[in-house]
Specification:
Blueprint: E1 9-11, H1 12-19, H2 23-32, E2 38-40, E3 43-47, H3 48-57
Antiparallel strand pairs: 1-3, 2-3
Length: 66
């Protein structure tokens, strides 16, 4: 995926590549209800807005220490 490419929805693999989170973690977030997903047949799709919303709600990293 190129930096300019913006999709309306991502597969689990694409969401994993976009965020750096593992596919297992993406599935766990969906199962816990922390990340909303949709089903199209057997395919799991994550709306771009849902992925952005999840990322925005994550806590900020403390800038004072490592």
């Amino acid at each position: 995926m190129t930096p300019r490419e913006h999709l309306s929805a991502y597969s689990v693999l694409q969401a994993s590549a976009r965020t750096g989170l593992s596919r297992t973690m993406i599935h766990a977030l969906i199962k816990r209800g922390d990340l909303q997903a949709r089903k199209a047949g057997r395919r799991t799709l994550i709306l771009a807005d849902a992925l952005d919303r999840y990322l925005r709600q994550l806590p900020m990293q403390d800038q004072g220490g490592r």
